[in-house]
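Recall the central idea of this unit: under ordinary conditions, the amino acid sequence of a chain determines the structure it adopts. In this exercise we apply that idea directly, starting from the sequence alone.
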Amino acid sequence: MPGQVAAVCRNEEYSFSKPHRDSIRLLTGLGVEGDVHAGETIRHQFRMTYEPDLPNLRQVHLMHEELFHELALKGFEVSAGQLGENITTRGVDLLGLPTGALLHLGEQAVLEVTGLRNPCAKINDFRKGLLGEVFAMDPLSGEFTFKCGVMAVVRRGGTVRPDDAIQVEPPPPPYRPLERV
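Accordingly, the structure predicted from this sequence is:
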């Protein structure tokens, strides 16, 4: 069963949250048209100061709607766009995807998953204590768990709307687990 786009968001200015839109247009090799993070090179405000010429592996931020339900059970009210994502998904195990997985959205758009979003301290400015719920260390393995979604680059542009289907195409094996980008 295919996943689904729950919401689409973009913002022309740097801010933590992104407003909902009826649709967004993905531009091949750039990101979301009109979004502050679109571009061939890094557009993350902090990272631009010391790595301005690196390729932008964070053109599109996707987050799973199921995280919002999990956070609600812990007393945090969060909805689509509030944590800065461009596309909120439903029914796709984003965090379980391998690096290089392709996401076919709607009729045309294709994203390539590049890695995990590295949650920043601004999450606690948005909701005090929230960072601890989206970023945790596994006491048994000592490894960190990042729950704030995945980052992707646009391989084929197109318009994406809420309720569009999402088809996952895994890369050829061997699969590489997602790492922070």
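The chain has three helices and 13 strands.
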